[in-house]
Amino acid sequence: MILIPRFRSRFVARVEVPTHGVRTDDRAAPVPAHTSAAHTEALSSKIKEQKVLVDELSNLKKNRKVYKQQQNSNVFFLADRTKMFSESKNTLDELRKEYQALENSETTKVKK
User: Fold this and answer.
1) How confident is the model at residue 22 (pLDDT cuts 50, 70, 90)?
2) 76: which of 14, 15, 58, 67 fits an S-S bond (Cβ 3.0–4.6 Å)?
3) pLDDT of 6 over the 70 cut
4) Does the CA dihedral 72-20-78-58 come out positive or negative?
5) Where does the pLDDT of residue 90 fall: very low under 50, low under 70, confident under 90, or very high at 90 and above?
6) Long-range contacts of 19-28 (CB under 8 A, 24+ apart)
7) What is the pLDDT of residues 32-53, one digit of tens each?
8) Which candidate, 41, 77, 39, 69, places its Cα nearest to that of 53?
9) What string of H, E and C letters represents the secondary structure of 10-66?
10) Euclidean distance between CA atoms 35 and 112, whole angstroms
């Protein structure tokens, strides 16, 4: 989330919502160990970003405007703050579930 200065003392919050690039077919395929570690780190990084986004949205004042960036462009649209907050929380929950599943699969591989 980036705050863009607007007028002298006001700021407009720009929210970048990450999209999921992982398809369900991709999760089913076995992943080599070095790729799995890289995927775990990338997932951990996305989770941290999403936590910051959720915290920033939860701390915004009621009258602040939130803009959502159009995918693959520099066009921004006004978005509802509460809707963006709920979408961000849902995305964070999904990322956490995916990370937990990845961690569980790695521990079962080590036990075997």
Assistant:
1) very low
2) 67
3) no
4) negative
5) very high
6) 19/71, 20/91, 20/94, 22/98, 27/98
7) 555 778 888 999 999 999 999 9
8) 69
9) EEEEEECCCCCCCCHHHHHCCCCHHHHHHHHHHHHHHHHHHHHHHHHHHHCCCCCCE
10) 19
